[in-house]
Amino acid sequence: MYLYGASGHAKVIIDILNASGIEVEALFDDDVSIKELLSIPVKHQWNGESPIVVSVGNNHSRKQIAEKLKCEFITVAHPTAVVSPHAAIGEGTVIMQGAIIQSDVTMGRHCILNTGASIDHECVIGDYVHISPQATLCGNVQVGEGAWIGASAVVIPGVKIGKWCTIGAGSVVVSDIPDGAIAYGNPCRIKSYNVTPCLDQRFSSTNRIAIYGAGGLGREVAGGIQRINKAGHQQWEIVGFFDDNIPVGTQVSHYGKVLGGINELNAFDEPLALAIAVGSPKTRKFIYNLIKNENITFPNLIAPSFRILDNKTFTIGQGNIIQDNCSVTCDVKIGDFNVFNGSNAMGHDVNVGNYNVMMPGVRLSGEVTVGDCNLLGVGSVVLQRVKIGNNLTLGAGSVMMTKPKDGLTYIGVPAKKFDF
Ligand SMILES: CC(C)(COP(=O)(O)OP(=O)(O)OC[C@H]1O[C@@H](n2cnc3c(N)ncnc32)[C@H](O)[C@@H]1OP(=O)(O)O)[C@@H](O)C(=O)NCCC(=O)NCCS
User: Which of 42, 153, 193, 375 fits as disulfide partner to 171, beta carbons 3.0 to 4.6 Å?
Assistant: First the structure.
C-alpha cells in the first residue's frame, strides 16, 4: 500500500489505514527534501507501485496527480466511519474518523470526507470534492467536481453546489451556488469567483512555478501567487526567479532566489510553470520568444478577487497575470501574456490581444479593442468602441476618446499625441 503526497493529510490517512491493519510501505512526493513521514520512507520517483491513495488535500493538485498516475487506487474508510451499504463510493476516496454517509449517496473518485463530516441520503458528490471536518450535507444535496466545503459548513436539503466552488468554514448554504464561486457566511453569499481551477492551470502539468523578472513586478506576482495559494484551490510552489540583470543567488524579498537568466531557464530539465513579470510590453514578447524549453508552461495567474459577471462568456488565453480587484462583465476576450496590474475594469465585448500591460486602475469601456504590446498607464480610461492598435503608450490618467495611431504616445484628457 502506497500514498502519494507526504503531507499532514497523509499522516491522517496512515492512521486510518493502520486502524484497519494495513501498513503503508512507502510514500511518494515531488519534494526531495522530505525523506520520511511517521518513520515511513518517502521516495521521489514513482515506478508504478500500487495500490495507491493520493494523499494531497488540495483538490486541484489531487486531480492532477490522480490523472498522471494510471494505476489501482484504493478507497479508504476509518472503522469508526459509518457508510451505508446502499452508498456508492468512487476509487481513491478517503473517509475519515467519525464521518457518516447515508443511504443512496453517490460519491465520486478521489474525494475527502473529513473528520466527523456527514452526507445525508441521496446526495450526489462529484470527483475530487473535499468536505471538511464536521461539515453537514442534508439530503439530496449535489456537489460538483473539485468543490471544497469548509469546516462545519451546513448545506440545507436539495441545494446544488457547482464545480470548483469554495464554501467558507461555518457557512450555512441555503441556495444554489454556481460553478467556481467563493461563497461564505450565514446565509452563504457569493463573494467572488474562483476562476483559478478552471483557468489558471490549464497550461501547466506542474505546481512548481518560477517568475521571470526579479524586480518590483516580480515581487508583486510572487505575492499574488501566495494569495492564490491561500484561497485554497491551488498550491503553487515558487522555486525562484530568473533574471538576466540580477546576479544568481540574489534573494528576492522572502519569495526566493535568482536561479539564473534565460540560458538557465532554457536548460531547466523539469516541468516548470513560468510567469513573465516584466512591465514592458515589448520586452515581455521578446522574452517569451527567447524561451525554447518545452518543459516550460505558462499558466494564467488570476487573483481570487477577480470578478466575472458571466463565466460562460469569458475567454482567456495563457500566461496572463490578473492582480487583485479586476473585473470583467460580459463577452470579454483576453489573449496571451497580458498583465492586469490591479483594479482594472473591462466592460462588455472588450477584446484584448497579447503582451499588453495595464497599470492599476485602467478602465476599458464596452466594445473597446486593444491590440498587442500596448502600455496603458495608471488610471487611464478608454472610451466605448475605441480601437487601440499595437505598441501604443497611454499616459497615466489620460482618456482615449478616438482611435489612436500605432506606436505613439498619447497623454491628456482627451488624450493627444505627445511629441517628445
Ligand atoms: C472562504 C475562505 C476560503 C476565504 O478565504 P480568503 O479569500 O483568503 O478570505 P480572507 O481571509 O481574505 O477574508 C476576506 C473577508 O471574508 C471574511 N471571511 C473569510 N472567511 C469567512 C467565513 N468562512 N465566514 C465568514 N466570513 C469569512 C473575513 O473575515 C474577511 O472579512 P473582512 O474583509 O471584513 O475583513 C476561507 O476563509 C475559509 O473559510 N476557508 C475554509 C477553511 C477550512 O474549512 N478548512 C478546512 C481544512 S481541513
Answer: 153
C-alpha cell at 401: 476618446
User: What domains sit in the chain, N to C, each tagged with a CATH number?
Assistant: 2-68 (3.40.50.20), 77-193 (2.160.10.10), 199-297 (3.40.50.20), 305-417 (2.160.10.10)
Which residue from 60, 115, 184, 191 has its CB within 8 A of the most atoms of ligand 1, so it is best to mutate? 184
Q: Is 132 in the pocket of ligand 1 (CB under 6 A)?
A: yes
| Of residues 170, 252, 180, 181, the one with CA closest to residue 212 | 252
In whole angstroms, give the CA distance from residue 65 to residue 345.
Answer: 36
Burial class (CB in 10 A: 0-12, 13-18, 19+), 263: exposed
Cβ proximity of 166 and 192 under 8 Å: no
| 227 Cα: distance to centroid of ligand 1 (angstroms) | 12
| CA 394 to each of CA 220, 380, 420: distance values in angstroms, whole numbers, following the listed order | 22, 7, 14
Ligand 1 proximity of 172 Cβ (cutoff 6 Å): no
Establish whether residue 197 lines the binding site of ligand 1, counting it when its CB lies within 6 angstroms of any ligand atom. Answer: no
242 CB near ligand 1 (under 6 Å): no
* Residues 264/291, Cβ–Cβ less than 8 Å: no
Q: What are phi and psi of 290, to 5 degrees?
A: -85, -15
Give the model confidence (pLDDT) of 167-199 as tens digits.
999 999 999 997 778 899 999 998 766 665 455
Condensed to tens digits (0 to 9), the pLDDT of residues 255-301 reads 999 999 999 999 999 989 999 999 999 999 999 999 999 899 898 99
